[in-house]
């Protein structure tokens, strides 16, 4: 390396906003750049030669120190050693003061023979990015509320217009049978309004009560016992594949609502009967639930809209029940998000649909007990 290249590397090392901390094979600090000085409030001369856990801020000392020791312990470079590369989200600061959010990556460094000789920490201040993400999420939620409010107003306006017409007809009609039919249609319109209100209450009640620690397998078993008889009458078979999973903090009543709405959607897509599969399992990062039906499927053009309030393909596919408000999957999406989960869907026309719900595996001793 030429002197010019060395000078450039030194300038880059000193002036970058990326935190760079290098450690030897004993986890002692050998490099500590200016960004590390600013972030960790410790001069380079006071950090060099110290064991990493002695110089890191106490809020991140245990987690980051453990990741460094794991990286050093890999020994030699191999396919398996890739697991030693760790990405972390860290928070600095006291509970009553400003907080700094960091995205950090720890990885071992190898010599020409593939032997672990050092370890490096790269970290970036993502406080502003995370703030922008939260602001964007809040903005999207307000936009969703606007869409929801507009949809509610539109639907209720249609319903009330129909109710007014039916009632006027019943009052002016001299035919008892016609008047009875008009009143029956009024009752159906009122039922539609009640169903919309019930779905909206599922959102409104999000803030009521706390979370119940629930085992997803128990939730699914309870739900299956409640719906099995009615499904049999509709010639729908319910198959369960349940594995032991860690306890995750989800609301039992909300999960029943989620499963119930997914099942309603599946029933509408299988007017002549079929099969519904519910599978529960876990991996190193998540506890997941997979819900699959054998219905008419979802057109790819509808995927990006399927969880939007009042968006529905019912009446065009499946059983053709056009009186559905299109809130079921929106409620599912909202409740899963409120429980800090993720949901997505995959489908092909005529090939059924699969909904996947994932919750982060809790970082507690209980998480290791399936």
What this model shows, in words?
The structure is a single chain. With 370 residues, the chain is α+β, with helices and mostly antiparallel strands. It has 3 domains: 123 residues, PAS domain (Beta-Lactamase, 2-Layer Sandwich); 70 residues, Orthogonal Bundle (Helix Hairpins); 162 residues, Heat Shock Protein 90 (2-Layer Sandwich). Helix content is 45%, strand content 21%. It contains 10 helices and 10 strands. The protein has a 5-stranded antiparallel beta sheet with strand order 2-1-5-4-3, sandwiched between helices. A 5-stranded mixed beta sheet has the order 6-7-8-10-9. The radius of gyration is 29 Å and the shape is elongated. The C terminus is likely disordered.
In short:
The protein is α+β, with helices and mostly antiparallel strands.
Low-confidence stretches: 315-325, 365-370
CATH-level-2 architecture of the largest domain: 2-Layer Sandwich
Choose one word for the global shape: elongated
Instruction: Supply the helix-strand structural class.
Output: alpha+beta
Give the CA-CA distance, first to last residue.
53 Å
Query: Averaged pLDDT, please?
Result: 79
Number-wise, the strands total: 10
Count the DSSP helices. 10
CATH class of the largest domain, anyone? Alpha Beta
Output the helix-strand order: HEEHHHHEEEHHHEHEEHEE
Question: How many domains make up the coordinates?
Answer: 3
Q: How is the biggest beta sheet arranged?
A: 5 strands, antiparallel
